[in-house]
Every structure is written in C-alpha cells, then in structure tokens.
Amino acid sequence: MDIKEYISSGIIEAYVLGLATEEEVSVLDCIRQKHPEVQEAILEAQRLLEDLATEQALSPAPELKDQIWATISSLPSDTPVSSSPDDDSLPSYVEEQAKVMKLPEQRDNHTLAIAATILLAVSLGGNILLYQQRQESDTMLAQAVAMRDSTQTLLSAANSQWELLQRPSVKTVSLAGVEGRADLKAVVLWDTQNASVYLTAEKLPAVPQGKQYQLWAIVDGQPVDAGVLPLASAEQVFKMNNIPQAQAFAITLEDEGGKPTPTLSDLYVIGNI
C-alpha cells in the first residue's frame, strides 16, 4: 500500500469529520498502528480544525476594560443615581458618552478566520469527493476485471470444445434425459485414439447437499466408473477418467465422492455411441 497516496485520498479528513464508515474506521485504526505517518496526519488534521475553531471565536479587545474603567472614574461622585429601574434621569453626558464609545473592530481577524474555514471546507470537500470517486472507480474496475475473467473462462471453454471437435478421432455422444427428466441433457466428447473423455453438463440441475454427479461408461453391458463431476467448479468442460472402449455413457446422482456401482433409480441422462 502506498501510504502517501492513502493519506492524500481524503480518508483522514473523512475520519476527523466523522464521515468515514465503520469499515473505513476499522481499516484506518489498523493502518495508523503500523504507520506513524498516518497517525501524525490524523493529529495534524485534528489540530487544524481546533486552531480554526479557536481563531474564529471573538473575544473583547484588551483595551476595552481600560476604557470602561476610565468612563466610570470620570463620573462626578455626587451624581445622584436612582435605584429604581424606571428612573430615566441619568445625566445626559453619560448618554452622550455611551453613544460615541465604540468597540474596536475585529473585522479583519474575523474575515481571515471565515476565509480559512471556507478554504478548509473546500479542501476537505475536494478530498472526500476524490476519495468517493476513487472508491467508485475501484468498484467499477473490480467489476470489469470479474467480467473479463468470466469472458476469458467462457472463451477458453469454447476453444477447448472447438479444438476437441476438430479432432478426427473424437466422437460426440449426446446424453438425453430419461423418463421424467426429458429436459436434461449432457454431452460427452470421447477421443477413441487416446481414450480421453470430456464432459459438458450445463443442462443438469444443481446437485443437492451431500450429492455429486457421476459419469459411467457402459462397456459390454457393465457400468464402468468414469469419474465424478467436480463440485462448485467454474469449468464448463470436465476431464473425466480415460475409457478405452464403450458402447454408451450415462450419468447418475450419487453420494458425494461417488460409488463403485450406479444407483439406477437416480439415473439422469444416457446416450448410445
């Protein structure tokens, strides 16, 4: 993993802002333990947010306290002050003083803080958007790779079947469904020259748990084990046991691992050569 690329992907900002998913947080926690630079990037992002929050806070100017005390001290000591909240007879010069006294402006600092916050938000938003786009791109890439692999598997199977069919010594034996299973079918490609046997069984239903299809060669009226079909295989053409001679082929459903003799009540397809 490229740590620099991971840090710049936006996941750090998403984590600090609480936008990361549980899975992303779990991965980040593992990575930060092994890579100090990731931990430092997290701390730096947190410090940046705290600094911006502090800078944006407004506090009274230090000279304001002195101005208030100076105003109070300038009042005559014999000026009557009413204790009643309804008394409006305050001296006019106090009102005038209140009118002209202004707070020192902190607009510049406030503007800078707002600008910094906006820049941070834009930066974080850009990184998060980039991170989300990369995740979507990774998903699309994974789907494309899976589709490519599937296509290559199908093409390889088609090429294998085509290559077998082009051999003069290969016989194609169609296996049709027995009574009650007429919609089932399979195909055996039998090379009479080297005794190799290949089977395609796309038209057979999925096997139940603990069961497995088994191919049989009928030789002089007796069934000969030609092997079991692999379970959960992506292949479409299966290499079976070599059969030097045969008059027919059949497939039965047996217990997983196969049996030495076929269960005729579970005969699915059969075909003569």
UniProtKB/TrEMBL annotation:
The keyword Transmembrane helix applies. InterPro entries: Anti-sigma-K/W_factor (IPR051474), RskA_C (IPR018764). GO terms for molecular function: sigma factor antagonist activity. Keywords: Membrane, Transmembrane, Transmembrane helix. GO terms for biological process: regulation of translation. The chain crosses the membrane at residues 111-131. Residues 113-263 form the Anti-sigma K factor RskA C-terminal domain. It comes from the Bacteria. It holds the Pfam family RskA_C. One of its GO terms (cellular component) is plasma membrane. The keyword Kinase does not apply. This is Anti-sigma K factor RskA C-terminal domain-containing protein. It comes from Sphingobacterium deserti.
